[in-house]
Amino acid sequence: METRTLVKNVLNTTYEEIPSSVVEHAKKSIQNWMGVAIGAAYHESMDMVLELKEDLNSGEQVSVLGRPEKVDLLLASLTNGMSSHIFDFDDTHLDTIHHPSGPIAPVVFALGEHYDLEPKELIRAFVLGCEVELRISNAVYPSHYSLGWHITSTAGVFGAAAAAGILLKFDEEQMLHALGLAGTQSSGLREMFGTMTKPFHPGKAAQNGLLAALLAKKGFTSSKQVLEAKRGFASVLAPEYNLDRINENWGTQWELLKNAFKPYACGIVLHPSIDACIKLRDYASVKDVKEIEVTVNPYVLELTGKPEPQTGLEGKFSIYHSATVGFLEGDAGEDQYKDEVVLRPDVVSFRSKVKPTVDPNMQEDEATAKLTLINGEEHTVKIEHATGSIENPMTQEHLDTKFSKLTQPIIGAENGKKVIEKVGNFENLSSIKEVIELCTSKNILV
Amino acid sequence: METRTLVKNVLNTTYEEIPSSVVEHAKKSIQNWMGVAIGAAYHESMDMVLELKEDLNSGEQVSVLGRPEKVDLLLASLTNGMSSHIFDFDDTHLDTIHHPSGPIAPVVFALGEHYDLEPKELIRAFVLGCEVELRISNAVYPSHYSLGWHITSTAGVFGAAAAAGILLKFDEEQMLHALGLAGTQSSGLREMFGTMTKPFHPGKAAQNGLLAALLAKKGFTSSKQVLEAKRGFASVLAPEYNLDRINENWGTQWELLKNAFKPYACGIVLHPSIDACIKLRDYASVKDVKEIEVTVNPYVLELTGKPEPQTGLEGKFSIYHSATVGFLEGDAGEDQYKDEVVLRPDVVSFRSKVKPTVDPNMQEDEATAKLTLINGEEHTVKIEHATGSIENPMTQEHLDTKFSKLTQPIIGAENGKKVIEKVGNFENLSSIKEVIELCTSKNILV
């Protein structure tokens, strides 16, 4: 009955029942999502996906953030979900390494723009869509993720369907069928990490979830117990699971509040190491460095052990590169993961000075960096909670700076400021179109 | 290296290297697929999916079999793949319970019509697409299916991408990326059996496979080792697997030759029981029957143990109903699985006389039916190989009759005959459009 209980919980939760702290965190999440989506809007993989519009002679309905094109609801969901994950710079539910906005926000924006829906209802759909996907993630993490599923898309598709179902005003039966249709499309392999197919995943989850809802709206039938059935989602996709996690503390505990934002444009497990290397800049200049020993949880090195990355994308999976730019440039934003930076001689040379070691007693958001100078001097920095963690969150000012850096080349500084202001006041907007039109069509500088 | 070897095998196999027996079986498979697709073209679920054209303002490119609409390549793949599985009357690779044509033929027809491709090349794409999906099925069956995956869609998506890649003239690298993109979309839960979402699966596999190929064509990158990687398809979706099965005996053994056609519009495991009950008609009339004891493999009853079905669809998962119509009507075609037949008083009443029992020594294509009359007389019929099995295949005449019954109400008897003739001569057609135009637009009677 977990699926039905979840559906009842979702449908019975009004906007007014969502605490203001959750609404505020939803708006931060949306701002952060828009920033990373707009920033990557002209990535070559985006051009490829948008060419489908010509290939398929498909319809013009809603906007692609950061681009002038209008595309149909499903293609918009795919593209806006994909762009937001291209830089690996989007939000993270730290308990489950799930990036919640990617599968949900594109559906909320597509339906919101197409039907010009009430902004408070859009926030409600966003929040509850995130709760659905994150609670399902809680139920199957870590066995599901360890097996090799990209949890952002496998669980995200349920949240996308739920968000769409809210906006399409579903009753209980329609929502059950929508979740069934969503679950049967659940997919996405971690094997794809490091290729364009990784960011494709949250986009496809958004698209599949919206498709599920569009069909359920018409009376299309599916299983009404997709989560708990003998051959349902949990049993088939997770070696171990706890379905109680899905509905426990509904309405009193909000998973979205555990959503963290990244200061650096790479996997969250690298962030404490980067924090540490930035701090080490106080102790030496480049020419004096003999080596930097970075000590991390073993899992970190498993994910990011690439010693000689050749592309920006590979750099994001390299603790060697990430520690290097942290020390050399004092930042690890999208600029530090450009192909030309990864191949720059001073960067290549410094990477060989980075010596990662592992310590199973370290937490994943913890790192130590020990700087050894040529003269033998040593300095050690310990990061207990990386910037962007729940214990050490990014401030609104940080988030605004991140948004501006990402979006300025695409929509300009002035429009960027207006977007920040309007998203901060999202629930009182007269229409979501006020926000979207600042990020599309004539406002594109590229 | 299994993925790369498979890609080399596919790309290096020319039309001329495909044995004529395989080409002949491919044409039978295509004819059977067209029959079941056209027959179900006006099912209510088809109307729902085709409404997406309006919802999305999507393009008009290619045909939906049995309907006047033209839709875009992706929607055509979804609809033509779905319609062919709606009646559960499509083909079956008996070794893996995989229905091979559903995910492949829609892609071949969509691209074939859109680009007016050479019919021999279409046959090549169909055959090799089927080989890809069936060999991947062999590698993961039975553990993958037992776990709960609908193997027709999970493996089918690879075949769909491969067929599309052949028709889009891929090189080795493009084909590798296409298979990666396909594998990461692999999905479909057996939990959906008995709902509209079951036939949605092969359609979605066709659509996802085509999408994978359309993106790979543009240079979209993915894993090049999706089948064998540590977190690839086999490892994540199958508790046990044997990757050697994928490429063994390539070019000498053809999985498509093991593709069987169904005489009855329900799961293949019910066919021997229906055969047996049809034979029992020789021994008694309805009023004299006390009971019919049907003995089957335990797995059969697990899949079809519904004693009191309420809809035609549920009837297809009921050995009680299937044995009943076999005895009462001497057939179990689509007509015997209409809602009104399932609810007819004489049918409901007779169902209670059907007593299934299980015997682990019985094969899945084997059944015994023992008729006990009210006067105590007993008659037993044993079916060693059901009609439509490899050992007892449907003849071309049987297939033609099945095609005509299914399609006559939609495209008329005369066009049906022409389709049979043209598909039988597929490799020599000047264009696939000769076949398609007989099944669409002005030729629709409905």
From TrEMBL, chains A, B:
Record-linked Pfam families? MmgE_PrpD_C, MmgE_PrpD_N
The segment(s) forming the MmgE/PrpD C-terminal domain are: 264-421
InterPro entries from the UniProt entry: MmgE/PrpD_sf, MmgE/PrpD_sf_1, MmgE/PrpD_sf_2, MmgE_PrpD, MmgE_PrpD_C, MmgE_PrpD_N
At the top level, the lineage of the source is Bacteria
Q: SUPFAM superfamilies this protein is in?
A: 2-methylcitrate dehydratase PrpD
Give all residue intervals belonging to the MmgE/PrpD N-terminal domain.
5-242
Q: Which family does it belong to?
A: Belongs to the PrpD family.
Name of protein: MmgE/PrpD family protein
Q: What is the lineage of its organism?
A: Bacteria, Bacillati, Bacillota, Bacilli, Bacillales
